[in-house]
Design brief:
- It is a single chain.
- The chain is built from 9 helices and no strands.
- By secondary structure, the protein is mostly helical.
- Among the domains are: 38 residues, no CATH class; 126 residues, no CATH class.
- The protein is elongated, with a radius of gyration of 35 Å.
């Protein structure tokens, strides 16, 4: 793994583009056009992909455990053509869910620490990527690299999709159904986020309305205060003029 690239994907998300451009400029200054073009082609990670990259860096043991569980799950699915493999399949499936759930909680913490909204949609994208890595060896290597630009999506169960278990064992769901349920889950998460944002927008509108009303009252108070001050200044000026006239009249009377 290129150390500069590894460092780049470990930076805070907001710093990615500037740091990438700096690497491109450095490569060009060194006359390495090929490297400059390769670095320039690197895309800024999506929020979910960036969080998964941080998980790969901060939780390497948990990531390795997840990938290990994925290997056990694939092996159990291949054995699931007999009753003997059903228990292993159920156990591996549950272990994978538990591992993903634990990493999802850690992802939520990373999001909050980094100013990324820990929405259901973002967390669902993280979980999808982790599930994809657990069920596909190539995706697992990409996950461990910590240099993802986009989240990954699980498609069925790879080379063991659609296996049927005989007897009392479980029957794996068709790949199409797995995809449909994943899409349904993502749609529900996006809808929930939309409702949350709409609620927040309404609260913001109410807050803005209250603030405007307060501002209007303050402006009215300022206008009234300015009017009173103006009247007071006029009255003071009138009294001062009267006092000056009285003093001048007294001085003239004394000179007589």
């Amino acid at each position: 793994m290129d150390k500069d690239i590894e460092h780049l994907f470990g930076l805070p998300l907001a710093e990615f583009t500037q740091a990438r451009n700096a690497l491109v400029a450095k490569a060009r200054a060194n006359g390495d056009t090929k490297r400059a073009n390769e670095i320039k082609s690197l895309k800024k990670p999506s929020a979910a992909a960036w969080v998964v990259n941080q998980l790969a860096r901060r939780e390497p043991t948990a990531i390795s455990d997840l990938i290990g569980v994925g290997g056990r799950l694939r092996k159990a699915q291949r054995k699931a053509m007999s009753k003997a493999g059903a228990a292993d399949l159920r156990a591996a499936t549950q272990d994978q869910r538990t591992a993903i759930a634990a990493l999802s909680k850690r992802a939520a913490v990373i999001m909050k620490e980094s100013g990324i909204a820990a929405t259901r949609a973002n967390l669902a994208a993280v979980e999808d990527t982790l599930a994809a890595a657990a069920t596909d060896e190539e995706a697992a290597e990409e996950l461990k690299s910590g240099t993802l630009s986009r989240e990954m999506h699980r498609v069925g169960f790879g080379d063991v999709a659609g296996l049927t278990v005989v007897g009392n064992a479980e029957i794996e769901e068709p790949e199409e159904r797995v995809d449909a349920e994943a899409a349904k889950k993502r749609a529900a998460a996006l809808a929930a986020d939309a409702r949350t944002l709409e609620t927040e927008a309404k609260k913001a509108e109410r807050t803005a309305k209250i603030a405007k009303e307060k501002l209007d009252r303050l402006r009215a108070g300022v206008a009234a205060a300015e009017k009173i001050a103006s009247e007071a200044r006029f009255a003071a000026g009138t009294k001062r003029k009267a006092a000056d006239d009285a003093r001048a009249k007294a001085e003239r009377a004394q000179r007589r």
